[in-house]
Fold DUF3669 domain-containing protein.
Amino acid sequence: MDISHDESVDELPPRNSYADALETEKLSKSLDRQRNTHLEEILRQEKGLPRVELATRLLSLDATISNSSYSIPKEIPEKTIGFRKIGFGQCGLVFEWPGREMAVKVARPGFQGALWVDHEAHKTVYSAFMEQNNAPLCRVPQIFTHISKDDKWWLENRGLLLDQHDDFPVPSSALTSEHILPLAGVVRETLIEKYCPQSMQQAALESTLNRDCLARVYLGRRRSPHQPRQVNFSLRNFNLCLDQMVDLGLPISSYASAIEEALAVIHWAANVNGYDVEFVLGSEASVSSQLRKAPPLQPTQELTWAAGEGQRKSTRIWVLDFNLCTQWEERIG
């Protein structure tokens, strides 16, 4: 999208104030608390079960919970809410926009081309998944749009971007997609209890960064039997290895089936090689919530998947990060 002559990306809104960052963090925490309270009410009948067993049930791909809407507290002015950083990858930083189920990935310097590759492959894979007669167990986040560094979007939204740094200049290219919600609080507490050094557990439980918990699924990796607990423990992009899945009693065969099905669709239906894609465990918002809170941008395709009337999965396997993928042409003969 071209910028008209009377507009310039150099004439951008000021960066968010510290107060805006506080309100954004407050809302993110409030919405997470609401989701976990809803989950605890559903699990109240399971009261008395060990936390590990509750976490294992939630991490089952078969577990469903009822949909629920979440509200922005009245004391938090919606106009003060910015984009909060929730992670990073090879080609960019990832932000959530609390109150809207949307994530924004902003390209690092020199990685604008990689983000465009990510967008094109992601869009192709998403379409291939949507065309399947039976919805795959693995999910692809809905893709919304690619934003160039010269797009007028930056005129309206740069001021909302928190955690800006001089070595990470904006505007840059960006990608907007469905936000994969973090794993449930009881799962996060279990991972900390079992795999964080005891001296660090209280700090880990209180860390706002550990609220942004997705677990990377590594079925082909085991930790060393004598490997000590992580010194630099973090639940952001937590590496969940095979021995830990066995330790937690997770449904490994279900994970393997979901991943192999996803790779087949990526390769044979989307004609994308799937190089270096990530498979992660995360929560999902309700479909109605996603449609209601979709950003004011033309989406690639409407969401049509649901776990069932008024139901959603407690945990999904998701596939993401297509920036190193290539698309290939299928030839006959």
Remarks:
- The chain has nine helices and twelve strands.
- Residues 18-52+66-181+284-300 form one domain.
